[in-house]
Amino acid sequence: MATSTSASASAAANKKVKVAAAGAKKTKTTAAAAAGRTALPARTTTTARKPSTAKKNAPKKKKQPVASAAAAKKKSKPAAAKPEGSKRVLVIVESPAKARTITELLKKAAAGGGGGGELYKGYTVDACNGHVTDLVGKRRDVPAELKEQTKGWDVVGVDVENDFEPLYIQNPKKKAIITRLKKASAKCDEIILATDEDREGEAISWHLLQVLEPKVPVKRAVFHEITQEALVKAFEEPGQIDENLVQAQEARRILDRLAGFTLTPVIWNFVAPGLSAGRVQSVALAMVVERERARLKFKSADYWDVVANVTAAGEPGRSFEARLVEVGSKTVVTGKDFDPDTGEIKDKLDASKLELLGSEKASAVAASLSSLEVLKVDKRRVRRQPPAPFITSTLQQESSRKLRLGVDQTMRAAQALYEAGYITYMRTDRPSLSKEAAGVAEGAVRDSFGDEYVRKGDAKTVKVKGSQEAHEAIRPALVGATPAATDTADGKQAREEEDEAGSGAGSASTSTTGGRFLHPTELPVEEDGGGGRGLEEQHRALYDLVYRRTLASAMAESEADFTTVSLGAGGVSLGDGEEVVDVVLKASGKTTVFEGFLKAYREEGADESVPGGAAAEGDDQETELPLLVEGGKVVCEDARPAPHRTSPPRRFSEASFIKELEAKGVGRPSTYASIIGTLRTRTYVNLQGRSLTPSLTGFVVADLLREHFPDFTDTGFTAKMEDKLDAIARGEKERVEYLSEYYLGEDGLKAKVASKRATIDPLEAKRARLPGLESLDDRCSILVGPYGGYLIPEASSGAVTGDDAGGSEARDDEGPGGGEEEEGEKKSSAVTLPYVAQDNLELLTVDLVERCLDSTYRGGDLLGQHPDTGEDIRIRMGRYGPFLECGGIQAAASAHVSTANKKDPTDLSLPSQPTPTDLLQHRGGGGQEPGSSSPDGETAGRGPHPPAAAVASGNDTVVYSAEDVIAFGLGANATEDGGGGGTAGNGGGDGGVGTWYSAVSLERAVGLLSLPRVVCESHPTEGGAIEAGVGRFGVWVRHKDSYKNVPAGI
């Protein structure tokens, strides 16, 4: 039964709308118009707002948006019904892409494609491009007529004293869109708000209602897949705006505003202006920082074991691997037995029952092994359940692991697939399919793999912590279906029973018959057009992932036999003068009995969220052991001692971070991508390879909040907040009640911040205390200010003392390694840290800090004298990494020009191919003045591409990035995501940048300092000399006013 969102309201509420609306018109012609914004009415309700003296926890009547007084009057005198097909209906969605897809499908319906017929010829679909309004963000944006009224508000955009009443303004960028929608709404007979079915979508619909003030009936339609059948059903059975969801979204938005506007000034005052704190942002940052702290505190430990290649009797060509596990009656120590903070055996373990092998004992055992006896054969069958279909978080995780897509990339691709009608709604936390979709999935499995691969019985799903389960799981959209008979009593009863059983998709489920999923090969490619629905390769890959995962969820479990064999040997020597003992080795194997769902989909085995985690042993790898019996003999073909070093906890990847957020109850599926995006935008967190690493600034901010405002770095506290917001969405808790509880009172945020500010030490607040750098405490302080990290030497350290400083004052130049003035500190005392070390704290070592201090106060390392002038050539460390200095000339120690196979390593002339002219035409270069910007146009203040260092050895030049230079010699076994390696924190001083310093050739330095130079006397077509030089971002060529960076590898 169709219902309208237009409802009657009290005279007070209607009056309130009129006054605010008049004010909005007035704003456009007053001084407030300079801001380009229009004030909106506060939220209208069926009852007037309670005064600020009202009890905060008093129950409220359920609120209902009002279109306008005229609409209310119109309802009392219904207009004559128009004949079917002549009614003009305006459908409003969020995005133009979604609008195009719906328009295309409605045209098919209007042409008789099913379910709609002539009815849909009068439908017009338009897009609002997301939110059309938001809370006013700055005091200067408050409309002129409201400035006096809002002047005393504690928080911009929120009237705390009046039940946390929000002040919304129209987005100035949406002015043309709003004008267009108003014109369209004036010409239609009915409006359907078809925004997404979640809190944000509900809020968008509510604000559209307030902005457009329509004089026609307004309906709310929801669907979780964009197909002709789903649209027909949604338009035939519209509903109302869910006021609880609107309340929850508004409460979340206000809560974020209260937290941000209250905590951010603390960060500004005590660390640096321009930074921020947030309700979810801060706890997420703390999670990344704590993982990094564990890595920096980590102490590595070395241990050995023995690996043997074993052959069963009678099968000489078939060997398998066994590993030493026991020596005598003691268990051989492995990595899990060490304390990561001390590098010693864990205290809780009984050391008398453990054997820590060194190289000598391991070698002696390996040399003694020959014949082994089979002590025990343990065989067990393991059944593995198929994975549930994707929800938002698991899609993001698997897309990251399998497709190497970032969270933002995944969500953009999923949004495009949804809007094009290929998958269901991508923001969901319900890991189950509707009954119809499950049936289609089973049919696809049966057709593709056979009956034996179809799941027996119902799927077992686990409720995700804090999940709302408003939509079914992400799956391919159903195509080629026909609407089921939903208007009958039996049909309605079936859907209600399905919802009660928990297998349906709620009110948004599409009841269809005879549908199917598009096979990935059926998707149109981008160049095909496909009526505007062609897909990029990235989108097709994501669809394929969703398709296979959906089918897997409907498939039978896999079965595999796991075999573990214990092998023993007696009389094994532990070395000269050592005892002779019995040893035990173990071998494991796996044999697949039935593939089941693995036929369609294999999950990743690595669990990156576990500290030091690695791929699950034998996860999907076949290692079939020969048939062995207890008491039998096997031959050790060879054995070797195997050294190991414990690894620090892995850094979070985007995928593992989302998994951790979900496990801790921090954020919700729709917010995970924005959480990571905010941390990266604020430069609190960087992406090193595929790992999330906190910056020095992020570390300091997290520590300040952890010490003084621990609730805002506590995952448990944040998870409880999310639960209460969910309760508001379910209508179980009042918005005002919760906001008052959070912000006001003795234990509220406002009082906490006010009392804590007086206890914060300004210097300690900006000090970075990194594990492993404690030895520097009496020599310098590592601080963070407006320009990032810097060093201040302690007065007692003697860093600057007359003759020790080379007879000159500390450097304050602005060259490649210049210093910067920091808040009240003299320029001569502040030493800037290299940006690459600020972004990757494992590079911020004792050695690097000492080099920075030495570079600033003693002029750096003397490389030699210039052969022509006799002046000293020094290597110094600056904000962009190492650089060279000779007299008044400075040059970044960088070059992309390879000197391999050249007789003279000082020869920096460009090779014959490409020519200087070719380089000037190279599209990949920056085309920017050297030293002013990076090759991709980012500002030189802190571009993502630090200079590369050319390290000469003989006639070859190896090109390193600045990060490689600083990391050179640390001994870290870096992995792709920066999570592995045997580094023992950042306290080491051996090797490091000193190793690189000693590797730089004097000849190479002379060549770099001689630039710029003319490399071509005359441009072949335009005339004028072509010069080459070296700057912060490598070698560049210049012709007149045109600059190009030389591509790497040339």
UniProtKB/TrEMBL annotation:
Keywords: DNA-binding, Isomerase, Magnesium, Metal-binding, Topoisomerase. It catalyses: ATP-independent breakage of single-stranded DNA, followed by passage and rejoining. Residues 909-918 have a biased composition (Polar residues). Residues 1-56, 506-515 have a biased composition (Low complexity). Residues 88-227 form the Toprim domain. GO terms for molecular function: DNA binding; DNA topoisomerase type I (single strand cut, ATP-independent) activity; metal ion binding. Belongs to the type IA topoisomerase family. This is DNA topoisomerase. It comes from Ectocarpus siliculosus (Brown alga).
